[in-house]
Write a structure and sequence with these properties.
By secondary structure, the protein is mainly alpha-helical. It has a domain of 62 residues. 59% of the residues lie in helices and 0% in strands. It has 5 helices and no strands. The relative contact order is 0.10.
Length: 98
């Protein structure tokens, strides 16, 4: 329970623009990690740009894994290192292959 409270506390002290980006992000982001980056001197605009860039890279991979390469917003293929990076199985035995 302490970790969840820490997440909420960190989220509440983030700049409003960053809270908006995190709240509307396609993926879960660790508010404590973002708060630590700000504490270390990262500019909020840089953190926002990094979040958006990661989501832009990740969405076609997620669509590939969940819906297959025929999905209009999916990657045609995905390298194994990207599957591993995003914690997907490397066996490629997805439902749409069967």
């Amino acid at each position: 329970m302490g970790r969840l409270k820490k997440q909420f506390d960190c989220y509440d002290r983030l700049p409003e623009t960053l809270r908006t980006v995190l709240a509307n992000a396609a993926f879960d982001w660790d508010a404590t990690l973002v708060a630590e980056a700000l504490d270390l001197g990262a500019p909020p605009e840089g953190v926002i740009a990094r979040i958006r860039e990661d989501e832009r890279r990740r969405l076609p991979i997620d669509n590939y894994v969940m819906y297959g390469p025929a999905h209009p917003q999916a990657a045609a293929s995905v390298q194994a290192n990207w599957l591993k990076y995003y914690h997907y199985p490397l066996t490629r035995e997805y439902w749409w292959v069967r």
